[in-house]
From TrEMBL:
Carboxymuconolactone decarboxylase-like domain: residues covered: 36-118
Designated name of the protein: 4-carboxymuconolactone decarboxylase
Residue ranges of coiled coil: none
Organism per entry: Bradyrhizobium neotropicale
Gene Ontology MF terms in the entry: peroxiredoxin activity
Length: 127
């Protein structure tokens, strides 16, 4: 494992998804899933998210679309919050999900719109 890239990835992951979310995930690390979490931090968050060629906002927009199409609701919820942190507006999220509906299918869009509304309501409630 490249410790420097792992640490960079962990920093990016916390900045995007929130320190509380990441710390909660990491407290559940055990001998079985530790190698996976290390790989996730190093490669996903360090090697790819840590690149400068695309801004985090753009990466978040791409992730929202791809994760919605894959219908991974738990990850979609986390990355939706991350996208808002990275400056993606609610209007932009709506437009991304409209694109998902056409290219990824209506069922994926229906679930994604529902989750987005739930996330927005949670955020508004806390505000």
């Amino acid at each position: 494992m490249d410790k420097k890239m792992h640490d960079k990835g962990l920093e990016v992951r916390k900045a995007v998804l929130g320190e509380a979310y990441v710390n909660n995930t990491l407290k559940n690390v055990d001998d079985f899933n530790r190698p996976f979490q290390e790989m996730l931090n190093e490669y996903c968050w360090g090697t790819v998210w840590g690149r400068e060629e695309l801004p985090r906002k753009t990466r978040s927009m791409l992730n929202i679309a791809m994760i919605a199409i894959l219908n991974r609701q738990h990850e979609f919820r986390a990355h939706l919050k991350g996208a808002l942190t990275n400056g993606v507006s609610r209007d932009e999220i709506r437009e991304i999900l409209m694109q998902v509906a056409i290219y990824g299918g209506m069922p994926a869009a229906v679930d994604s719109f529902r989750i987005a509304r739930e996330v927005f309501a949670e955020i508004d409630e806390k505000a």
